[in-house]
């Protein structure tokens, strides 16, 4: 019974880490075009917090370091899910080891966006210093009004210095911190249940050998 409960919980946690866990919030939607502001009414917007969603928005923001981390997270979680369903403890061990690394990575992201220990969110660390892109949420967060200012010189319309963002309900760095905090919480719970399931599988293997 304990094995079944532990396996089912771990399967649920792995699925939750992969799929979206939407949080509804009421936001004021605004869209801004060059020279004209178009404002939408209040409506509920979903902010998913899981690995697949995070990968999509990191792609939109060209955040190459998080993209690599998210890709490995998705692969290992699928591996852990398969190991749990198919009674493969070695796969769950891989998931457990990676979970510890994943928690460390998300703690680093929190420190990066909160600028702890000399880190700065304005650096190009998340893009491997190959571009000046920032988090997608910087300009597209809940309630943000994005205004593109027409520059005096042609050909540099997409330069970030000519983009004004106002009215955000929550700053982009806190959205990134929330994403990482949710991942840490899920990972810690998954780590505990993974260790429990591994111990149950090992006990069953030992009992089968002694018979």
UniProtKB/TrEMBL annotation:
An annotated GO cellular component: plasma membrane
Protein origin, superkingdom: Eukaryota
UniProt-listed GO biological process terms: regulation of sodium ion transport
Signal peptide location: 1-25
Main location class: membrane
Subcellular locations according to the entry: Cell membrane
Pfam families associated with the record: NKAIN
Membrane topology per record: Multi-pass membrane protein
Keyword terms, alphabetized: Cell membrane, Membrane, Signal, Transmembrane, Transmembrane helix
Keyword Plastid: no
Transmembrane segments: 64-85, 92-116, 181-202
Family assignment from sequence similarity: Belongs to the NKAIN family.
Protein name: Sodium/potassium-transporting ATPase subunit beta-1-interacting protein
Originating species: Gallus gallus (Chicken)
């Amino acid at each position: 019974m304990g094995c079944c409960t532990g396996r089912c919980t771990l399967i649920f946690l792995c699925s939750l880490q992969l799929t979206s866990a939407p949080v509804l919030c009421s936001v004021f939607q605004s869209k801004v075009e060059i020279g004209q502001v178009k404002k939408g009414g209040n409506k509920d917007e979903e902010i998913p917090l899981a690995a697949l969603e995070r990968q999509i928005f990191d792609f939109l923001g060209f955040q190459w370091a998080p993209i690599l981390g998210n890709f490995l997270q998705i692969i290992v979680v699928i591996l852990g899910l398969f190991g749990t369903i198919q009674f493969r403890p070695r796969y769950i061990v891989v998931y457990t080891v990676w979970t510890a690394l994943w928690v460390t990575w998300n703690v680093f992201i929190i420190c990066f966006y909160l600028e702890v220990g000399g880190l700065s969110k304005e650096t190009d660390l998340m893009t491997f210093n190959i571009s000046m892109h920032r988090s997608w949420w910087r300009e597209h967060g809940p309630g943000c009004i994005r205004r593109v200012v027409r520059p005096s010189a042609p050909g540099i319309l997409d330069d970030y210095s000519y983009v004004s963002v106002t009215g955000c309900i929550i700053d982009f760095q806190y959205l990134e911190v929330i994403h990482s905090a949710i991942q840490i919480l899920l990972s810690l719970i998954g780590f505990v249940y993974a260790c429990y399931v591994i111990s149950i599988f090992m006990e069953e293997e030992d009992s089968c050998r002694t018979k």
